[in-house]
Amino acid sequence: xxxxxxxxxxxxxxxxxxxxxxxxxxxxxxxxxxxxxxxxxxxxxxxxxxxxxxxxxxxxxxxxxxxxxxxxxxxxxxxxxxxxxxxxxxxxxxxxxxxxxxxxxxxxxxxxxxxxxxxxxxxxxxxxxxxxxxxxxxxxxxxxxxxxxxxxxxxxxxxxxxxxxxxxxxxxxxxxxxxxxxxxxxxxxxxxxxxxxxxxxxxxxxxxxxxxxxxxxxxxxxxxxxxxxxxxxxxxxxxxxxxxxxxxxxxxxxxxxxxxxxxxxxxxxxxxxxxxxxxxxxxxxxxxxxxxxxxxxxxxxxxxxxxxxxxxxxxxxxxxxxxxxxxxxxxxxxxxxxxxxxxxxxxxxxxxxxxxxxxxxxxxxxxxxxxxxxxxxxxxxxxxxxxxxxxxxxxxxxxxxxxxxxxxxxxxxxx
Length: 415
Known about the structure:
The chain has helices at residues 301-310, 312-316; strands at residues 6-9, 14-17, 36-38, 47-50, 56-60, 73-80, 94-99, 105-109, 114-118, 124-128, 130-131, 137-138, 143-146, 152-156, 161-165, 171-176, 181-184, 189-190, 196-202, 210-216, 222-226, 237-241, 246-250, 257-261, 267-271, 276-280, 286-292, 333-338, 344-348, 357-362, 368-374, 385-387, 390-396, 402-410. By secondary structure, the chain is mainly beta.
């Protein structure tokens, strides 16, 4: 029997249910005794301690490791998209972005349900697929990932399958996957060993259901599953309930737990209200914990106005929002990604009236390097890709028209 549909959109903290609720809990135990400290890097005031459990605990003060002139700079060098016209570079919604080894852009156009391919210079190459239910057709693709075979895998829960296309755009194969439940941004992908990860349902729960992450072997058979990290406290939501559905959306500026899989088979969590990042093994053991001091930003009247405007959809659907529940200060950050070299790019809270997007960057050891300003408002659904000295990101202009940007990462010598 097909499961009742549910949708989770972490970029807007929105959860839509059809009679079911999602429960996923993970315990995080941090050792506090029996530690050995590593010598701090020159010019860095933080500490790196190894606890008796083997966990590495990194503390970062407010300052940065980079000195003046040593920081990285993002230089935009290519933009794909247009405000007008009917060509392939006119996008309605870019729901996912991938880049192949030739530097070509593979964009999934969510409104048309098709892939649009552009070469490294931004020229249109081809369209792959179309909306439908047949082989090579898509109905509701929520994520893409390059497989160990070099082909592109697309997750299409409305068609209950994974579709595979090669780099020429030809349809290769399809495989069954869980249907009826849509999780966006899609949290899955492949690790370096070629194992495939996607979400599933914990069938051991009797009265409710819990979403879990399922690991599959090279034969795509499930191996095991874990519950993803969940916010340890009570989340603040606005909600609409009736006999057939339950609609929830997070109260603006309340802390959250963000998490991402890494290519090495581990996964990372981030507590936005504490500025704490942690790396977990697949079995749930804490491998590394990273903290950074920060000064919370105040929620301004402009912030409140913009937050209320973003919740127009909820009010129009019949919801009621108690604006007094919005906190006086903002979380430390919004989200994060891990690049191919292990650097952590933390998306900071956007400040009203300021252009671009600010990132805090940590090295693979967890030491805070400094700030990098993207000269464009990078979105996190889909998340930016940082690879081979570039950042690839989806962005929107002031009219909310999407486009894709490639920015070169300029790194001063020695930084």
